[in-house]
Design goal:
Length: 432
Amino acid sequence: MDFFLKYNLCLWAVLASFFLLPASANEVTPLDKVVVIVGEGVVTESELNKEVYLASNNIKKSGASMPDITYLRGQVLERMVIRRALGDFADNTGIRVSDNEIREALQRLAKQQNLSVSDYLQAVEDNGLSISQLRENLVIETKILKLRRREIEANLVVNESEIESYLKRVKEVAGGLDEFLIAHILIAIPENATAQSSQVSQDKLQKAISRLEDGLDFRQVAAETSDASDALEGGVMGWRDATSLPDLFLDALESLRIGERSDILRSPNGFHILYLIDKRGRDAQIIIQETSARHILFKVNPAVLPDEALQRATEARNRILIGGESFEDLAKSLSDDTSGTKGGNLGWLLPGETVPEFERALDELALGELSQPVRSQFGYHLIEVLDRRDSDVSEERQIAVARQAILQQKLEFRFEEWVREVRDTTFIKYIN
């Protein structure tokens, strides 16, 4: 789902910018002194300088105004602190990442750049970044994704009244759903805020407003002051349809013209200022692509180690592709999923009905293609896509789509709130 790439602690956009580093970047040798202690680790000045360079590169590519270097360094350092804090939390709560998961993440990155894995790695090295650094970043980002699933997704609930409200909104805009291209600034208010911390948030809010009133570009001010995870992208949230926005945002946006910003909005997360970059209509008919697929699952559990499950999956794949054995027969005899009794058939699947790793594999497979072993929280899957179709979803399917959209909306806001909670409980000491 999109949020897996949306949350901008995520590494994908940063890694893509590696290709744009000039050769002169190799000549810079910053002083390697500690800037901040985070839990059991540190952030050094050389690491910070490299991340600031990459962030500057991304901002230049976006066409946004470059923020003041002091603000930029502060925002980049905060992002690094959060990533280290989340990494420590993952380690201390038993999150582990296998070599196969790193290989799969690397394959996705290479594919996004239309490169083979070997060419991608060569490009990374050519731009002065070691393979060990790349691997370390991939490990941290994979841990964060696992944390998000365990700590946030598993605890989210959508009630019937929320679904009814969502579907009602869709029907009310029968002439077409509006979509909004939005940027925003978030000034967070800490949980159980004291008078002092509340005043800090108010002062930061006034600073942002003052800079906007002075005529600075909205995206520059967002990059300098926003506490949101997309701050360094100028606060740009991307295109959002009316049904995927909270009522607080939607009510403000519907009165804005393109190029205008909202008044200050207050939510449980803090203060928000929205900027409407663009707006367009979209057909209200809900057409989605369904995928018919089957799979064989090799579970990982205390009795079956990951490497053992991977070996079993690889052997089964070879038996199908090389030995010519039937997928259906092997699913019935080998699969650890209840679908095994049906030859592994999962029926027609909607987006969001399977775990993200499984869904990504589905999206990448051609009809009739057998996947490599795909790791998920359940174990290793062999997946085959049988058919695809566009469907005007039935009422039952519309409810499923509504539920998924609401979950996504809740996930986004709750994750940022949770990240701040982890940060606030982590030992952090800035040096000089």
